[in-house]
Specification:
Layout lengths: L1 H13 L3 H8 L14 H8 L1 H22 L5 H16 L12 H11 L1 H18 L2 H19 L4 H14 L1 H9 L6
Helix pairs in contact: 1-4, 1-5, 2-4, 3-4, 4-5, 4-6, 5-6, 5-9, 6-7, 7-8, 8-9
């Protein structure tokens, strides 16, 4: 029963649409501007740097906090289920009719709670790809797919979790992948 209640808690925290809330503070419906996404990239494009950083920090924290708390009470496999629920909550938030973000910042918070070393490697890979291409989606996809390989070397017991996470991130970026193939993806 405690695990089920915690899953509900993780889902509700993960589904808080910080991009939408920050946009509202600035008088902008972020779902009707730019890409319509509630995450950091669209916040940056439509609201500006300071609001976007607030969205990024809040989305990272909403991934980090439930997982970190879960680690105090549950075994690793249960924590990993809670981690996936938290990310899926961001992608499918109840508050926005299940139309949310792509899961990158919330996923970053989740992996930061699970394994800080893997998080650092993923962040470095993201930055290297981003600084050379200025394409956020490509940077996100490459770093997501690097996670299972890094995990296999550093924490093999997390590899399946990171394969699932990379698959989810690929699915949320399916439209971006189409634009990348066509050479039409937006650059920052």
């Amino acid at each position: 029963m405690q695990f089920l209640l915690f899953i509900i808690f993780a889902y509700l925290v993960g589904s808080i649409p910080f991009g939408k809330l920050v946009g509202k503070i600035y008088g902008v419906d972020i779902q009707k501007k730019g890409s319509g996404n509630i995450g950091f990239t669209n916040s940056l494009r439509t609201l500006g740097l300071k609001p976007a950083i607030l969205v990024l920090a809040a989305d990272i924290l909403k991934g980090f906090i439930p997982v970190k708390i879960a680690q105090l009470s549950f075994p690793l496999n249960d924590v990993l289920i809670i981690a996936l629920i938290t990310i899926l909550a961001h992608i499918f938030p109840v508050w926005l009719k299940f139309k949310g973000g792509k899961g990158i910042a919330t996923g970053l918070g989740v992996i930061l709670a699970i394994n800080p070393l893997i998080t650092i490697v993923a962040a470095i890979i993201f930055l290297v790809i981003f600084l050379s291409t200025r394409i956020v989606s490509l940077s996100s996809l490459v770093s997501a797919w690097a996670l299972p390989f890094v995990s296999y070397q550093v924490a093999p017991n997390l590899t399946v979790f990171f394969l699932l996470l990379a698959t989810i991130i690929t699915w949320t970026h399916r439209e971006n992948i189409t634009r990348l193939i066509k050479g039409a993806e937006n650059r920052m």
